[in-house]
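Sorry to interrupt, but I need a hand with the structure work. Go ahead and set the record down below:
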Amino acid sequence: MKVPQLRKKLEIKSCHNTSWEDNYSWIHQKDILEVLKDKNKLNPEVKKYLIEENNHTDHHLKDTKDLQKKLFDEIKGRIKLDDESLPFRDHTYDYWTKTTTEGNYSIKLRKKINTDNVEEIWNGDKEKEKLGVEYFGVGDLEVSHNDKLLAYSLDTKGSEYYKIFIRDISTNKLVTKEITDTSGSITFSLDDKYIFYSKLDENHRARKIYRHKIGDHLSEDYLVFEEKSEAFTVGISLTSDEKYYLITTSDHNTSEQYYFGVDEITPKPKLIIKRQRGILYSINSWANNFYNHTNNDAEDFKIDISPSLENQNWKPFVPSKNEVLIGGCVFLKNWIIRSETSDALDKLFIRNISTNFEEELIFSDEKVYVPNISLKQKDRNTDEIYLGYSSPKTPSRVYSYNLSDKSKKLVKEQEIPSGHDTEDYIVERIEYKSHDGRMVPLTITRHKKTKIDGAANVLLYGYGSYGNSMSPSFSSTRLSLINRDIIWATAHIRGGMEKGMKWWKEGKLTNKKNTFEDYIYAAKYLIEKKYSSAGKIIGMGGSAGGLLMGAVVNQSPKLFLGIIMAVPFVDSLTTNLDHSLPLTVGEFDEFGNAKDNKDHFDYIFSYAPYNNIKKMDYPHMLITTSLSDNRVLFDEPAKFTAKLRDLKTDNNLLLLKTEMDAGHGGKSGRDGAIEEIALDYAFALKISKKI
């Protein structure tokens, strides 16, 4: 089949006295944010190219069609399709969600306490059918405090421009005009007369909080707060005691909060603590005290307490610990529950408020697992919570747990309909030495029959940005590879927060290359210890994890058999230089500001995947993207693919697949998500010669 070719049109770019060629910059449209809203505005020549690439991908994966179907059925077979969540008790109703065998979207149900009359208040599949759309993304689904109204936000393109709707549950009729161009989040006022929402500006940034009186004209919406900095975005929430609204404005590294009382007729937000670069803080209130979760003078966070916000007098409540990430608090009348993370493992602690005694909750003898808690009811005067955990080999288990007498009862276990035996799998947590001597955690999951003799393929997953930690939780989908003799390894590389804030700082800005080195050294460790061999590892990452994939494949292509990158941030220099794009300005403290800082420019230029493609052999590559993605524009993987075709000197597969009706998260709906995983896994199995 003819290999797709994107037309070249040379542009010489320059910045800080450095010039470089870009043959494909012409595909970026000035009205790109309009294209995200309406794909008919896409340049026809570019559309033709993307379709040709899709056809090329289909052609080269046609021998995997049966395998994709088999994988789809396998993955779906591990999901209990007709499932129900555990109930959450409100004042008047129990609320829960369910999924069905036929449906792709969840259904929200409720029943009045002490009755058997179950009421369906939301059905995603019916809503999608009513709208007649291909993509259906639900942003928020909120019931008013009086249980009479349902507010929901929808994105029907994948571009994350959400419309908010409010309807009367009893009549199913809309009670206010739809609100467009919002971030999707919805907060009801306690009296249910209003909702608060955040509006997107022309650069797709949420910088204004409005209050909308339900039933009134949108022109009368009251502007509660406006953020002046283009780098910060805003959100609104309610404190645990429901006494205050908190407006949080932040980028990834700095935050600032304002508060106003729930009974204020005209909200006038008051500043809590003035923003200070690099300082994050988050306030909550409970039992006439305010709690501040902050990294001020505490790199890995601490929690301080003050009786007042007007006259702040912060005293230590939970002190900081070196390379132990202190999490926030969940409050009950007699208990405070909080979390800590160290060495890529989470822990939960319970504090008795009356005695101030605190202890760790341990409820599994597995070395690697992920614990979690959630509230059973709105009324905080209870000793009962839901307590859950999972591990790479153990499906999720949830208990009803009594904090007072420590009794627990299993109330929900993740069912694997096609069967699952935890004893078939081996989970290892090791630490390996990176290029600078730092010890990096690595979680390895394999089938007990897989031999450690260098013959196996390894799928090495990585991310390493924004302080996002990779959680070693259970994934039923991965079993399709693990059961076929492919070892799954997750590298907890720098740029995440698995070892605290320092771990993040050592993997961002002009330390970003540590992220790439950590990943490469993970691959070398897996080869050295005979989990795999050079040229047998498959790299996988999405979004900023796609940046990781692009950087490491340019640097060390011979380590890899193949690379799978989803919505990859591969033209990172071009994006960083364009301050009009939605995320750029808010990420200066993550990646740098190449336009205004020569050191940042030189550093980004030295690793940006698109700029560093070389004339050499590359491994097999599958690149997936979405036309309506506003976070990583489809431009980036399209340009990256076209330039790779120019320069690579091998005959390995280079496949680009563009979803024409999807956003950053890929296709919507359960089946759509499974189809995408099946495609990725079929590619991995094809190049591993396991078809």
